[in-house]
Design goal:
Outer membrane efflux proteins (OEP), about 10% strand, 5-stranded antiparallel β-sheet, 12 helices, about 475 residues, alpha+beta
């Protein structure tokens, strides 16, 4: 540091500081009334038509709980499950807390730097010196408008990330709802098939006792019934797992775990979407987040270049009071008092680093973000096309099961039963046809589940915020647990 000391008048210094402080404080940011949640709520309603609240006090918590209780009184639909998750998931509330922290950082960045005050006292037998000083960073004051603008942009990027967390939780909850409902449907079907197999086994047992059925046919029927028992146990285990994953998404516990679920919806009318890529590029919130972060980096790079040769400038005002005593030739003590005011300007001179490393780091960070943004734009186009392809393919597969496969399997089993009753075929054909019909029905349930998951993936491939491919891996913001696919 190379200090330079200049005398300054007390009144001039006071007015200079007051005018500078008034100008700076006039541009300071303040906390918003809604904590930045207005933009999040508008985005959630526009994109998914759902209500989002930040629970910051007891009244908000009671209101959200009353709404959740109201939704839980009826069997849940996918929309109701999403609404409960958005109101009740604590991981999402943690994401809103991050938004609040971002706002606090924005407000702090818009404030002038705090000055430092110091008082020192030096005393001896005959002398005393008292020094009072105030110091502040001129560089921080000079760059305050630019830093405040960057902080505002960072807060807006944090708002987009919070909106992305909302959309991600909604997509993951919807996917998990369809998995859970499909698991319920499989259990119901296996139970019905098991009941029919039990009745057939009882009939075969009686026929075997009377000699009407040989032991080989009995064994085949018993093996078929045993296989159904195992498959029903596996389906029930899958049902419990999927339900617990949904519970974590919804944030439920205690008596709320008794909620009922609806059934898989029927196939809707096929959506025909034109210009899928353009719509995804226009609406994807993760792309908007990346663009906002790139803008922040661009402004940060400009600030780095502007201050590359100066690391810091400190302004220090000092007031010194000296008091001493001396003894004259006659032995009398004389007091000497003096006061002085100084203004010091300290500039850190970069002898070894003229800012090249700071600028190079900022430039490489910016180019990294720009390349990632370009990569994301390419990937979003591909993801949109892939999601639409999966949506259309799963629609055709599900419709094929409903319109052709299942009706034909029913006809085959009914005819096989008639032929067996007429002694035209043996029990082996009957069991084979029954097993094939069971497999087809389970595959049809899974196809309908996969269609609705593909439907969710397609929707969120256009607006963002959801993990693609139906993986439904839950992030820390969503905090819904790991959601795997059904078997």
């Amino acid at each position: 540091m190379l200090p330079s000391t200049l005398p300054i008048g007390r009144r001039s210094l006071r007015w200079t500081l007051l005018i500078g402080a008034a100008a700076l404080l006039g541009g300071c940011a303040s906390f918003s009334a809604d904590g930045g949640m207005g933009a999040i709520q508008s985005a959630a309603y526009a994109d998914i038509g759902k209500e989002v609240v930040k629970i910051g006090d007891d009244q908000a918590a009671l209101t959200a709980k009353a709404r959740v209780d109201q939704l839980l009184r009826k069997p849940l639909t996918a929309d109701a499950a999403v609404q409960i998750a958005l109101l009740n998931n604590r991981g999402l509330q943690a994401a809103f807390n991050e938004l609040g922290m971002a706002e606090a950082q924005m407000v702090a960045a818009s404030l002038p730097p705090n000055p430092s005050f110091g008082v020192s006292k030096l005393s001896g037998r005959f002398e005393i010196e008292i020094e009072r000083q105030i110091a502040g960073s001129l560089l921080a004051l000079a760059t305050l408008p630019a830093r405040a603008e960057i902080a505002q942009d960072r807060f807006q990027a944090a708002q987009l990330r919070a909106a992305e967390a909302v959309l991600r939780l909604a997509a993951d909850t919807r996917r998990q709802y369809y998995r859970t409902v499909a698991a319920n449907a499989q259990v119901t079907f296996y139970q019905e098939a098991k009941a029919s197999a039990d009745a057939a086994s009882e009939l075969f047992k009686r026929l075997g006792e009377s000699g009407g059925v040989n032991k080989l046919d009995q064994a085949r029927e018993y093996a078929f019934e045993a296989e159904l028992t195992v498959q029903l146990a596996q389906a029930r285990q899958q049902q419990r797992q999927e339900r617990e994953r949904l519970v974590r998404q919804l944030g439920l516990w205690g008596d709320d775990l008794k909620f009922q679920l609806g059934s898989l919806p029927p196939l809707p009318k096929l959506q025909s979407v034109k210009a899928v890529e353009a719509e995804a590029l226009r609406k994807r919130i993760d792309l908007r987040v990346a663009r906002a972060e790139l803008d922040v980096l661009a402004k940060s790079l400009g600030l780095t270049q502007a201050t590359r040769f100066v690391n810091d400038i400190d302004l220090l005002g000092r007031r010194t009071y000296d008091r001493g005593r001396s003894i004259d030739d006659h032995g009398h003590v004389e007091r000497e008092t003096s006061r002085s005011k100084t203004l010091e300007l300290e500039i850190e001179i970069p002898i070894y680093d003229f800012g090249q490393s700071k600028v190079a780091l900022a430039e490489q960070t910016y180019m990294q973000a720009a390349n990632k943004l370009a990569e994301k734009a390419v990937n979003i186009r591909s993801e949109a096309r892939e999601a639409y392809t999966a949506y259309r393919a799963n629609y055709d597969i599900t419709r094929q099961y409903q319109n052709n496969v299942l009706p034909l399997r029913k006809i085959i089993q009914d005819e096989s039963l008639l032929q067996y009753s007429g002694m035209l075929n043996d029990v082996t054909d009957l069991i084979t046809d029954a097993r094939n019909r069971i497999l087809s029905n389970v595959a049809a349930i899974n196809a309908r589940r996969d269609f609705w998951i593909a439907h969710t993936d397609f929707k969120h491939a256009l607006i963002g915020g959801g993990s693609g491919g139906g993986g439904a891996m839950v992030t820390a913001a969503a905090a819904g647990g790991d959601a795997g696919g059904g078997h």
